[in-house]
């Protein structure tokens, strides 16, 4: 199947699963975001998708937690900053896969945004595990890869 641009697809009432690169710089002492350039870079695509009537599930990694949950690398501050920049609520989930994630995704309405937890909290991400990729893919009707800075990595959320 040919790869399409996000502008080639009817997004109305669709759930879009979008891989973004929110691997932002954090202050080592406070954990605050020191550079939100990568979040800002994704805004045009995010706004386009939402303006076309889709709901949006975002996924990204942050740092190198090596398959373990590292509290300083949770996506909470990213969700807060994205919400400020978008001017709308971004619901941050505490996982990427599982029944609770599916329940929250199923409740999404057009124009609503979910940010999944750090994909690298799962070792399956960096191992490009096909089952993990399948579980992620099941969350959306359409997949958009906006994480060009990570496109060279064979990870489940980008190539799986």
UniProtKB/TrEMBL annotation:
| Example of a GO MF term | ADP binding
Alphabetical GO CC annotations of the entry are:
cytosol
E.C. no: 2.7.2.3
What catalytic reaction does the record list? (2R)-3-phosphoglycerate + ATP = (2R)-3-phospho-glyceroyl phosphate + ADP
Q: Which SUPFAM superfamilies match?
A: Phosphoglycerate kinase
> Which Pfam families does the record match to this protein?
PGK
Q: Which InterPro entries match?
A: Phosphoglycerate_kinase (IPR001576), Phosphoglycerate_kinase_N (IPR015824), Phosphoglycerate_kinase_sf (IPR036043)
What biological-process terms (Gene Ontology) are attached?
Answer: gluconeogenesis; glycolytic process
Q: What's in the keyword line of the UniProt record?
A: ATP-binding, Kinase, Nucleotide-binding, Transferase
Q: Could you tell me which pathway this protein works in?
A: Carbohydrate degradation; glycolysis; pyruvate from D-glyceraldehyde 3-phosphate: step 2/5
Query: Which family is this sequence assigned to?
Result: Belongs to the phosphoglycerate kinase family.
The name of this protein is Phosphoglycerate kinase
Q: Gene name on record?
A: pgk
């Amino acid at each position: 199947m040919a790869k399409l641009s996000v502008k080639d697809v009817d997004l109305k009432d669709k759930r879009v699963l979008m891989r973004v690169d929110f691997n932002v710089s954090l202050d080592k002492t406070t954990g605050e975001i020191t550079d939100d350039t990568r979040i800002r870079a994704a805004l045009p695509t995010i706004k386009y998708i939402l303006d076309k009537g889709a709901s949006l599930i975002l996924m990204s990694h942050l740092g190198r937690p090596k398959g373990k949950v590292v509290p300083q690398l949770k996506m909470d501050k990213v969700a807060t900053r994205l919400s400020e920049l978008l001017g709308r609520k971004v619901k941050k989930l505490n996982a990427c896969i599982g029944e609770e994630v599916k329940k929250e995704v199923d409740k999404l309405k057009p124009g609503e945004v979910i940010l999944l937890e750090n994909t690298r909290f799962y070792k399956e991400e960096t191992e490009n595990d096909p089952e993990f990729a399948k579980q992620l893919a099941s969350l959306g009707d359409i997949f958009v890869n906006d994480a060009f800075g990570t496109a060279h990595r064979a990870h489940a959320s980008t190539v799986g």
